[in-house]
Specification:
The chain has about 230 residues and is an alpha/beta fold. The chain has a single domain, classed as 3-Layer(aba) Sandwich (Rossmann fold). The chain contains seven helices and seven strands. Helix 3 runs parallel beside helix 4 (about 95-120) and helix 4 runs parallel beside helix 5 (about 140-160).
Length: about 230
Amino acid sequence: MQPDVKRALVFGGSGVVGSAVLGELARRGVHAVFTYRRGEDRAHVLARKLGHHPVQVDLADAAATTAMLDAQGAIDVVIHCAGISAGLGLTELDVAAWQEAMAVNVQSAFLACRWVAARGRRCDVVLVGGLDRTQSLPLPVHFAASQGALAALAMAAAHELGRLDIRVNAIALGPLEAGISTGLAARRRKDYETFSALRRPGKAAEVAKAIAWLALENTFIQGKVIAVNGGI
């Protein structure tokens, strides 16, 4: 059954997960606007291949992100795939790196939720992160903190916006074959695979199917973090 959705907005659409989500949306006949920060060539290749519309914006810039949102027309689905990390230990982490991670990973998601709330019409919001509320994993502190904030944002926003028929949920991914996960040390990647029930990293295309289902077909899951991580 094809979902009755006309338009989606995808944050971080030029990334590994975001581009897979764009491909899945195109397969389902859903048109999307998607953001990118750098990688203009890749963004325009995706646009030509999939028929989506790219918008360049620095998600760390609250004013620019707000302006991008205010420029959108009718949007039925918001999928936030944007995320940055760096392999910095706690003593190496400075305030600038912390603030940038929080701005891109959390602040832009908050702005998206606030924009959806202000419109007051039916919408599905999916926040894509890398940590659910039950895991205890060795992650960079700034990245882990931002992912915990995403989970809490989904929970609280869902309670506030449910009465407006706005669903807000999060998906927590495990290590993937590409993207941010490639920054993990080889030993750490091996540890994840060892403790994964499926004994392998995920593929962007397969997690994109779960993201698209939650965004397009879910009707009664609300304020939850869905782990799509191979059973870690």
